[in-house]
Amino acid sequence: MRTIAITGIGELTTNDAARFGGDLGILRDAALVVEDGRIAWIGPTTRAPATDRRLDVDGRAVIPGLVDAHTHLVFAGDRSQEFVARMAGAAYDGRGILETVEATRAASTAHLSTRLRHSMAELRRQGTTTVEIKSGYGLDLANETRLLRIAGAFTSETTFLGGHAIPVEYRRHRDAYIELVSGDMLRVCAPLARWADVFCEPHSPHALREDEARLVLTRAKDAGLGVRVHGCQLGEGPGAELAVELGAASLDHATHLRDSDADLLADAAPEGGPVVTLLPLVEFATRQPFPDARRLLDRGVHVALASDCNPGTNASSSLPLAMALAVRHMGMTPEQALRGATVEAARSLRRDDIGRLTVGAAADLALVDAPSYLHIFYRPGVPLVSALDVADTPGGGSSSGTWH
Ligand SMILES: N=CN[C@@H](CCC(=O)O)C(=O)O
Ligand SMILES: [Zn+2]
């Protein structure tokens, strides 16, 4: 059995408030012992037990590995011109999804896998150690299964998003596509996915309508999948009501929520209702208004943060930047933003084994090249956060890191 002590941690955020107090369970001048990839001990550096190896981080901060619970990382093509057009005033309406579908269908599996491998390394370099990945750029049976298989090689958090948009070949036969997604496509994709998601958006002619979204998600639940909803992204709509009605784990985007939606989500929160996953990089890259996180937090709604890295509405994979935007523009405190990208994101995936550092848990760590996690907000855009691969320290093992 190999043990390593990580010592000299200036500020260790555990999210274990019960043991260490405060909102974040912070311990200063801390050390942490890792045994076979699991945390075996947490305490002051001065009392760290003898170990086989020692890594001193010289006063830097350590936080739980970040959890990105909303990404669309399996795709081909490039929509940078669409971004440029938006910056010149064009509105986002979801049409670009179909452009990515065309490019993705035409791409080889090797190309898609290589791109995804690069994206995953990019995420780790920014501190993300758990990633949810959606399909949704295949929109036919063969390609949706292909994308889920590719994603499944990198994460257990795979999401079937056949209900992302109505593909061009079904434009005049929407009902037939909905029947396919909620029938044969779901049947073959369900074993490859943990979740199902839909883009329910009355303000986009390409996205699913409320009744279509309800049918797809109801059948997905019957097939044993957990459900998530893209809702209220482009304007007010039925997304929040649908998420609550179907017991979704998460309502994502929530850019345009009515007070009645916020009240509904608040009423559902004590019974394990949907976490609201806000995606500030999307508002940043589409020039939409930032949602008011405070309005939700004050009502007791659980709020998570994710990147929504995708080729259209946001191509940045930086969860630290999303966190900084949430504090600057959405009324979150730094504590709430850090929790949003760790324990609350874990909650949106219905997991309690990630997003916190406790004895017995996996050593799922991120290093902040600064004395405090506060520098994530204080110095936005600076690459301070990275996954800490304990096995990679001198004398250690693999370089690919561990996904949780
Ligand atoms: N809105 C729906 N889906 C993605 C965007 C997909 C795209 O434009 O390619 C999102 O989460 O924003
Ligand atoms: Zn999305």
TrEMBL record:
Record SUPFAM superfamilies: Composite domain of metallo-dependent hydrolases, Metallo-dependent hydrolases
Keyword Zinc tagged: yes
InterPro entries per UniProt: Amidohydro-rel, HutI, Metal-dep_hydrolase_composite, Metal_Hydrolase
Keyword Iron belongs to the record: yes
Annotated binding of Fe(3+), by residue: H70, H72, H230, D308
Note on how the cofactor is bound: Binds 1 zinc or iron ion per subunit.
Record-listed N-formimidoyl-L-glutamate binding positions: Y137, N310, G312
Subcellular location: Cytoplasm
This enzyme's EC code(s): 3.5.2.7
A Pfam family it matches: Amidohydro_1
Catalytic activity of the protein: 4-imidazolone-5-propanoate + H2O = N-formimidoyl-L-glutamate
GO molecular function: imidazolonepropionase activity
Function (record text): Catalyzes the hydrolytic cleavage of the carbon-nitrogen bond in imidazolone-5-propanoate to yield N-formimidoyl-L-glutamate. It is the third step in the universal histidine degradation pathway.
HAMAP family, A to Z: HutI (MF_00372)
Family to which the UniProt record says this protein belongs: Belongs to the metallo-dependent hydrolases superfamily. HutI family.
Name of the featured protein: Imidazolonepropionase
